[in-house]
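re the bet — no i am not wrong, look at it urself. input seq straight from the record:
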Amino acid sequence: MKTKLFGLFVMLLLLCPAPYVKAQVSIGIGLPNLSIGINLPMYPTLAPVPGYPVYYAPQVDGNYFFYDSMYWVYQGDNWYASSWYNGPWAFVDPMSVPLFVLRIPVRYYQQPPAYFRGWQSNAPPRWGQQWGNDWEHRRSGWDRWNHKAVPTRAPEPTYQRQYTGDRYPHVEQQRELRNQSYRYQPRDKAVRQHIQQQSGQINQQPAQRVRQEPQNRNPQPVEQQQPAQHRPGTGQPVPQQQNPAVHEQRQQPTPQQREQQAPRAQGQQERGAVQDSGHDRGQGRDKEDDRGRGR
């Protein structure tokens, strides 16, 4: 009897499906870049929001969206953005949130805050009540647009699916992988500004290291070119004097010239010697003649 009951219990376990577990979202602000961490074990499943150029993540237990090549999370009354599905995340000022992110209907928020209660599910949140009259005035008309002229959705960055767990890239690698695998260029001006800001934060530290590199303390001397001089009254330039070392180097004869000059120099020496001897003999005869004359 006990055996039959145990077998029946095992069959019930096999036939009953396992309960569905959503991915948990854990938000934590970390200085100095105000980035947040979302604990997603893998690339989330994204579903399009009908009539909007936006995706949402129905399996993520959080307010998680994808718009115009970037991920957007609304948590703790703040918006955060990232170009990779698991961060790092950067804080987005309410004045800089893209319009179509603000227009996402309430029904697609998986964890709507308490003040969303009572709002129409097919309409966007009432951000003016949350952020005040100044925000409402400066972003007037954010909830009015032509529903027949909605831009197309950006393609999903599916290349990020292969980077999970320990293979998830560091911040320095994310930009390089994105440039290699994702050719889409964002159309929304606010999105382009966020991408440029995040890229500037990544490159800021290497740029400082380049500026701190020591300069060469022993520079090589550079020969200064003297201004051209002219002869008085002619207007013709005066030839500049060359370096003595260079001049001497140019005046040195080649071995062939030395062989040709050697016989000439020897002949000149012999002729000079003959002339000197003849001159000496002539002087001797003059002296003898003078003694003969009694001088």
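see?? The chain has seven helices and eight strands. told u. also Residues 20-203 form one domain. so pay up
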